[in-house]
Amino acid sequence: MPAGMMIPARNAPSMIGRNGNVGVFGSPASLVLGQWDILSNGGVVQEMAHIANGRDTGNSVSLLRVNSPNSSQSNMLILQENITDQTAAFVIYAPVDIVAINVVLNGGDPDYVALLPSGFAILPDGTAASNDSANNIMEHGSGGSLLTVAFQILVDSIPTAKLSLGSVATVNNLIACTVERIRASLSCENP
């Protein structure tokens, strides 16, 4: 974990649509990331490595590169895990420094990589059940879905720094923007 002052933040669960298909977060993960994540900043997301995790093709760990027009992000990769089952979809990700990843890939200490994971969970809201219990509720839908977004953000590299109101406002804006981008990528209307 990096040294400094961090803000953990999350939204209250919010409705993201009716009869929405939350299973779209399967593969390819890189296409989805570019649609909702502020880290992509409008850039093209390239999946550099993909490791399947279990029998479900939607469950995986990916190493993503953001080819952003913003040159300050050129040394950043994103480590992302997607988990989908009959009850929920989870996307957990963390920006990682390309130099730190190269150290680990060349046999270095993985503790050298500072991770601040963030992510979101999409769950059925429980207002209606699937007619066929043998089928995946994620594919066949319910009355709607609930979205919870969580971030860990390094605000200042000085651990004793004071938290500013501007930092809180920025994080609140980031959460609201991310929720709206996820809604848009799922083609969900605001309920």
TrEMBL record:
Pfam families: PDF2_C. Residues 35-188 form the HD-Zip IV C-terminal domain. The keyword Magnesium does not apply. Keywords: DNA-binding, Homeobox. GO terms for molecular function: DNA binding. Transmembrane segments: none annotated. InterPro entries: HD-Zip_IV (IPR042160), HD-Zip_IV_C (IPR057993). This is Homeobox-leucine zipper protein HDG2. The gene is HDG2.
